[in-house]
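Subject: design request, 344 residues
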């Protein structure tokens, strides 16, 4: 059985967005808006799985909305909204909490990383985070999910949940809908170079908005001077750039900077390796800075402009939430009926 093609993705409003978010997620979202029906969500309910200051959460939610728009997403073409304004996400997440198995959740590496050594003290929400993420996607029966590769494991879990639901309720699904499967198996849309942008200070760590060092990342709203300074300070090694990709072995920082260049230039990494083969980092960093500044400047200018008008951003989210709700509501209602809830 085939499902209508639909894209869903989400970004957490937990801080200023980084170049990793931009290259790994936002800049790609715009590529899909002409091909698919797309929903882009600010996942404020995921954000509170770790403590968020309420004022900052509010501000960051508008900040991610601005970043979506500044990255080229048209709010008329795409449904741009925040998760907590559509109640069906929470309702579906509860059903999925009862479908997913504790053993599945125990395998999630992100939980282990985020809970750290104090697992007993982590919120229950952090633990069931992946079933809320599955709900986000499946409450729209979305078929395609653009995410960075750090989210692949969660997406696999969403597929497992869809499959188990389809299987557990197979008889009633067939009886009520004449369909084999009620939920699709959502597929990742992960393409192109620099899927995972690493920290500028440590090539083995993901570039993250939650890293305590601001020098570890380029923020989407950094100005040209700040970008230049961060790239100048970025960790490298004493060797010149390699002349083949195999030369990155044991040189994660070099590989990361070349990956960033390739992603910004929208070129294959190999082409960048060829161009800078044998070059010193000082020379390469100069070109990288220029490329980063020219690529990001229009985005960061637009971001600052949009952030200055919170009323506009709120109205974008409200309109988007209404459109999202119109899709989710009938799917949620049918899910409740399948489960056996009276009144659905
Ligand atoms: P998050 O910041 O964790 O809410 O992530 C939002 C989106 O950005 C997700 O699709 C992530 O996969 C992507 N993302 C976050 N950090 C990076 C990174 N360092 N490199 C590539 N993609 C990233
Ligand atoms: N977990 C994702 C992240 O941290 C954000 C997210 C929540 C998401 N729900 C989603 C991404 C649904 C894709 C689809 O990056």
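Subject: RE: design request

Done. Sequence follows.
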């Amino acid at each position: 059985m085939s499902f209508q093609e639909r894209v869903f993705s989400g970004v957490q409003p937990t801080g200023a967005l980084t170049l990793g978010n931009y290259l790994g997620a936002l800049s790609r979202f715009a590529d899909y808006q002409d091909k698919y029906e797309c929903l882009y969500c600010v996942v404020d309910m995921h954000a509170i799985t770790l403590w968020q200051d309420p004022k900052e959460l509010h501000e960051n939610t508008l900040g991610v909305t601005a970043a979506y728009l500044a990255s080229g997403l048209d709010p008329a073409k795409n449904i741009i909204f925040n998760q907590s304004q559509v109640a069906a996400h929470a309702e579906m997440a509860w059903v999925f909490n009862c479908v997913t198995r504790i053993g599945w959740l125990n395998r999630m590496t992100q939980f282990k990383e985020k809970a750290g050594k104090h697992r007993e003290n982590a919120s229950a929400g952090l633990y069931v985070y992946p079933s809320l993420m599955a709900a986000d996607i499946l409450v729209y029966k979305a078929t395609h999910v653009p995410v960075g590769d750090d989210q692949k494991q969660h997406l696999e879990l969403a597929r497992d949940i869809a499959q188990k639901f389809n299987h557990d309720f197979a008889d009633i699904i067939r009886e009520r809908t004449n369909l084999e499967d009620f939920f699709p198996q959502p597929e990742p849309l992960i393409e192109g170079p620099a899927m995972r942008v690493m920290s500028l200070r440590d090539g083995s760590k993901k570039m993250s908005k939650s890293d305590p060092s601001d020098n570890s990342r380029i923020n989407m709203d950094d100005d040209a001077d700040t970008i230049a300074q961060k790239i100048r300070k970025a960790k490298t090694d004493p060797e010149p750039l390699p002349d083949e990709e195999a030369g990155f072995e044991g040189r994660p920082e070099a590989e990361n900077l070349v990956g960033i260049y390739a992603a910004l230039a929208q070129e294959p990494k190999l082409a960048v390796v060829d161009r800078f083969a044998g070059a010193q980092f000082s020379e390469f960093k100069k070109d990288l800075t220029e490329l980063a500044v020219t690529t990001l400047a229009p985005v960061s200018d637009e971001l600052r402009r949009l952030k200055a008008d919170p009323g506009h951003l709120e109205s974008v989210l409200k309109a988007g939430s209404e459109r999202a709700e119109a899709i989710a509501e009938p799917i949620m209602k049918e899910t409740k009926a399948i489960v056996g809830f009276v009144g659905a």
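The radius of gyration is 21 Å.
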